[in-house]
Amino acid sequence: xxxxxxxxxxxxxxxxxxxxxxxxxxxxxxxxxxxxxxxxxxxxxxxxxxxxxxxxxxxxxxxxxxxxxxxxxxxxxxxxxxxxxxxxxxxxxxxxxxxxxxxxxxxxxxxxxxxxxxxxxxxxxxxxxxxxxxxxxxxxxxxxxxxxxxxxxxxxxxxxxxxxxxxxxxxxxxxxxxxxxxxxxxxxxxxxxxxxxxxxxxxxxxxxxxxxxxxxxxxxxxxxxxxxxxxxxxxxxxxxxxxxxxxxxxxxxxxxxxxxxxxxxxxxxxxxxxxxxxxxxxxxxxxxxxxxxxxxxxxxxxxxxxxxxxxxxx
Length: 314
Prior knowledge:
Region (Disordered): 1-45, 291-314
InterPro entries: Brix (IPR007109), BRX1 (IPR026532)
Distance between the termini: 160 Å
Protein name: Brix domain-containing protein
Subcellular location: Nucleus, Nucleolus
Domain Brix: 53-256
């Protein structure tokens, strides 16, 4: 029977072990391998910028279903947002919202405020130092009621397009910057897809901002692949929702502070409803005055007696 070798002999025959440490594996992202970690200083002395924008989306109490569905549509379009409970719409709502934004570790806020179960106001704010904008929302159409044929992937990043009117006046430039920071989805966000397949369109018409959402549709067949350079075959299919923003005021702070811009053409919905009631009341007053004028005319101009009135009495 063969004898077992001693352990000492096997240890002497082994090659010397190198104690060098293997290089660390680079970090992998959705777009591929990353050479430099985030925050590493660049050659020019600065740091690599990373967009950490997070948006808190909430609404006021007693909001109606139509405006609540619009808010949920906006939440579905922004994967970097956080939805919170309803907030009481009072004068002190600014301090409450700023505290909520800080607790949820966000940097911006979208607050849908409903008044009198009729009017919808939208607050866009950069917390906690501002600026903030108050809009009146008109022409609301949600995804459920439009029934459009567009259907982009949930969580994909949108292309933000603005009309040339935004570069005209200073307050439009400020609004463009606020909208681009809030609606622009960060590149490396964990819930966002790393490509673009829809477009957010912001256009100015009659001093109102009109919002549209379009899917980028490309006809593609397996036999005939689509060339990247050719944009002639691409089409835009509307997805929704639709709404119109009428800017009221721009504040220097978050949900308040010094007024940077006040819209001179803004008319509140309460004034419009009051004018409509006055017009209806004026119509009734005109009818009453016409009846009194008719009676006075008949009394001042009596008819002559008819000679044939008693002809058929017998």
